[in-house]
Amino acid sequence: MSMANIKVDGHLIETNDQGFLMHLDEWSESYAIEMAKIDNIYLFTDHWELIYYFRDYYEENLECPTMHQMLMDLTPKIKKFHNKKVYEHHIYNLFKFDPIHEICKLAGLPMPQPDT
Question: What are the pLDDT digits (tens) for 7-54?
Fold first, then answer.
């Protein structure tokens, strides 16, 4: 796997060629902001809630949640979304192409397995 570097707060942070951190302990909000800029994502509160959910989930389970797991966990907690389909649509509006992949990257977590 080839590597790249991203400059964050004046330091070079090592990533793979897809932007995932090579060293998970180098994650910071500044890294997430820089990587989001590269990926043309503007981070708002809903993005940060998902990023921190993923970090918490990973800390407890040592794996990234699947879309199904995320919807099961979060839909009941977010009152403005009355069902999983509506919330899933919202997530795809936040992260247009591959939400799980993109959230894992911004959260500084390993690349998720395919079909998550």
Answer: 899 999 999 988 899 999 999 999 999 999 999 999 999 999 999 999
Q: How many CA atoms within 13 Å lie on the side-chain side of 47?
A: 17
Residues 6+ apart with CB under 8 A from 104: 20, 54, 64, 110, 111, 112
Average pLDDT, the chain: 89
Both tokens of 51, joined, read 């990023």
Q: Give the H or E element holding residue 31.
A: helix 29-38
Token readout for 18 is 């897809």
Length of the chain: 116
